[in-house]
Structures are given as C-alpha cells and as structure tokens.
Amino acid sequence: MSVREPRSGGIPAEHPGDADEDERRRLSVFDLLGLAAGGVVGSGWLLSASRAAGIAGFDAVWAWAIGGALMLVIAIVMVELGTAAPKTGGLVFLPLQSSGALVATVVAAGLWTLYAINPASEAAAMTDGLSAWVPGLFDPSGNALTVEGFLWSTLFMAVMVAVNLLAPRLFAKVNFLLTVWKVLVPVLIVVLLLAAGFDTRWVTAQRPGVGHGLEAALAAVVGSGVIYAYLGFQGPLDFAGNIRRRGVGEGARLRWSVYGTILGSIVLYLSLQVVFLGHLNPAQKAPQTSPYTQFAVAASLLWVTPFIRLDTLLSPLGAGLVYTHVLTGEVAALSRAHLTHRGLQVARNASLRLGGRLVDVYWMVLLVDFAIGWVALLLVGGSWGTLITASSVLTLIVYAVPGVTLVALRRHLPRVSGRRTTVRRVLALLSFLLTGQVLYWAGWSALWPGLAALAAGCLLLLGLPMLARRHLPLVGGWFRRYDAKEHVTRFRDWRTPSSGAAPAIWLLGYLAVLSLLTLAANSRIGFREHWVGSVLGVAASGLAFHRLVVLSEDYADRVRPSLPTPTPALPRPRAAGEDPDRISAASG
C-alpha cells in the first residue's frame, strides 16, 4: 500500500511486466476496506455510546441514525467526485483546482489538523483502556492525564509512527488483520448481549439529568463523538488515484469499500447503542469509560471480557495507524501544490531503505504529524472528549467543501446524464446544508475548539511563507528554509476572479456567520428559540453554497483545472492456457 501514485494512463504494450508491477502496487478491495473500516472502528464505539446516553438518553439512538445518514449523503458526494477525478490527496487537490489556493489552504488546515490530532485522541483512548490494568494514569477527576498517563499516550503515538515505517505491503497486511479483529469484537458483543436479554423498559426510560428529543439528539451528534465514530470512511478516497483497475475497475472498488463501511457501521453503532441502553439501569450514571466489560460480567459472559479489554487497546491503535498513514498522502499533495514546505515530499524525506530496498514511507511527514498531535494532546491535558469534539467540527467543515467542488467542476469532469448532474447538485447542496445544521446544533461549547484549531492551522499555512521571506530579528533564520508559496497575498486581489480570494472570503465569512448564530443561540441575549437560529443557518448555508459554486466556476473557467481522468476497467491478465474469447466475454 504505497501513498505514491503509480503511473497514470496506459502502460505501453511492449512492457507488460511494468503494467503488472504497476497494478500490483495499486490497492485492492481488501486494502480499501482495511483503510475504511480500520479508520471507522476505533475508540468511538468504545466510549461514545455512554457520552451519547448522557446527553440524549434514549434519543441517543436518533443521534447515531442522524450521524449515519449525514455521513452517507456526504460519502455519495465524495465518491461521485473521487470516481470522476480519481486523485491521491484529492481532498485538497480537487478544491485547489475548483476554487484556488486559498480555499484549498482552509481545507488543508482543517484536514491536516484533523488527521494529526486523531492519533492523539486514539492514544488517549488507549491510555484509558490501559488504566484497567495500570492505576494512576488519570487525575482524580478522570478528565486529564497524569504525567505517567501522558507518557503512555506519547508511547502509543510513537508506536503508530513506527508501524507506519514498515514496507507499505506489510503495513497493509497488519492493518487488515487488525481491522478484522476490531470488527469482530463489537459484533460479538452485540450478539452476546442481545442473546443475554435485557429489560426493555430500561431502553425507553427517561434518565435523570439528561436531555431528550431532537434537540438533544442533534447536540449528541458532535458532542458525544457520534461524528467522530463515523470518521475514517474517506480513507479510500485519500488514495483514489491508486486503486486497481483490472476486473471491476477502480470506481466499483471505491464504492464497495466506502458504502459498505458506512452502511455496516450504521447498523453496528445503532445496535451497540441499543445494547448499551438496555443494560444501563436508569438510576445509574452513564460510565465515562467503556462499559461493555461490566455488561459482560453482569450477563455472566466472563469468557468474553479479556477480548473486550484487549480491544480497548487494539481498536484505537488500529484507527490511529490508519489516520497516521493516510495523512502522509494528503500532506504530500499539499507539498507538491506549494501549500506547505516542498521538502516534506522530496525523495530523501519520503523514503527509507528497509531490508535492502527502498520503500515509500514519508518519514519526515510522520515526524511532523507526530509533533502536531503531541502538542494537541498536551494543550488539552489528554482529554479524549475535547479532542474528539474538535475533530468532529473540523471534519464537518472539510466534508462540506467536496459538494461545492463537485458542482463547480461539472463542466470539466467527464460528461454524465442530465439526471445524474441534477442528482449530484441536489446531494451536494443537501450535504452542505446538513453539515451547517449539525454544526449549529452542536452548540458553542463544542464548536469553538474546532474553529480555534482551524484558525491556528490557517495562520500557520498562510503565515509561515511570509516569515520565510522576511529577515526578522532572532527568529527569521529559523523559517528561511521553509519553501511554500506566499498565497496570503492573493487577498489583495480579491476582486480578480483568477486570484481565488473571493471563494475563500465567502467560505470564511460563512463559518463566521454560523459561529455567531451558534453563539447567539447559547447566550442569554440570543434567540428565545433555537429553531430561529436554525432557520437563519439554513438560509446562510444555502446562500453560501450558491456563491461558492458561482465564484468557483468563475475561477475554474479562468484558471483551467488540471484533472485526472478515470481509467476504464482493464481486462484481467490471461492465465496460461486460458481461452481468450472467454476472457473477452467475461470482461466486456
């Protein structure tokens, strides 16, 4: 599983060995499922059910349904874009082509921060799981790591980096085996606890001190980690330009892995939440740590508790490995586009000699990402809840942009039917509106950490090139080797469509308006009814989507995008002695 794209286009017929090697380097369905399911099934299923129940009670089930439906709509839009223009690192590259460098920088800041802090959150969850054997890893409040706990989390993050230094094909095998384990354990928990039975009156009982209704369910979507638990399905999309083309083709493999992972995770998470509610006495407070071990003990399923405890370490580890891996491809795309330091993806920083041969591992990117995640872990004191809330907000912001890109690039993508074009536009608008609504209903306390992380990322990506070109006293020399274009100067030409400044201004302005509406809804001087702000948020989202599409179309018409084209499915290689007519019939 290499993060570098193989050769694009056809391989000359006189070099069939090159074509076979190129195909072997590409990702199979199992590799893609390992990325998608491996990223989705992490610490979210272990810890989010209790947090969701603490916010919305029985209506936490609706939170999982809403989150799953939102992810499915977004996934359809992203898969449509990823199959029309398959590109490794496309979550940043494609907005760069449709809307310009400034919009791409905003997306890159959110994506990079999101992917970098995810291993930190998974490491915090692993430390939480380890606390069952090693006491003293959390302070008495249980919300912050002690020094010993912080050291353990740092060690777990270092393990994620170390495993990603393996040869790509070996990493793929390790990740696939971990993914199979991670999926089997929660499925086993659901089956066994359902078979053990529970008092159905507990499922629908109103729990003291928790909210209820649609408003509470919407708040739980972000605040409890529902969105966070669904994250990771986009892993195959991060490598859309590196998928096998023989047989069913790259498009079919991408759809199977993404849609299969989302639909499967919706069923799994809904089942886990029902099982959780069915075994939690209404008089009890929802536990902050994974409750399934206690439930298994209460149901006399002692033999399964070692598997659950082991999974509290392996499940977050697997998800952290996937995020650590896929971020290298996105950062390499940023580097090639001059949005960050170009030295991150040069050969000497992207390869290591292992076992006598050179492998692509982007070790410099891994070290930079480790530093970002470690600083985030330090700033929040190891709080899993703060990290996953910030991740969820950043995710929704990043996921809103592909819809704009898909519609804005429609004249430059392979031609499709008028009906499919209309469906794409409707789903793109719907995904933009829904992400705005989920952000609004998350509340200001959940929204601001993610926005602060996004602002910090934007300031770094836009500000470091300025520092590198200015001889500042004391610190100027530190940044002189930083090699990235100074895109921030494009804001001076915001009236010029080719600058790409206008779409970025509208995107940032939209986020500012949404933030103000959310802040007003959560303040004493705000709306008497939250639904007033919700309606205003829908109006703001609709206007922002329309303007972003129009301005991005204008930009793409003046700065013609350089887009990859999908490759038709290639016939499978003929085995010795096989009838070529049968192969043609099967592939045609």
From TrEMBL:
GO terms for cellular component: membrane. This is Amino acid transporter. Residues 1-22, 562-588 are annotated as: Disordered. It is a multi-pass membrane protein. Its main location: membrane. The chain crosses the membrane at residues 29-48, 60-79, 91-117, 149-167, 174-196, 216-233, 254-272, 361-381, 387-410, 422-440, 446-464, 500-519, 531-550. Keywords: Membrane, Transmembrane, Transmembrane helix. The keyword Membrane applies. It is found in: Membrane. Pfam families: AA_permease_2. One of its GO terms (molecular function) is transmembrane transporter activity. Coiled coil: none annotated. It comes from Kitasatospora viridis.
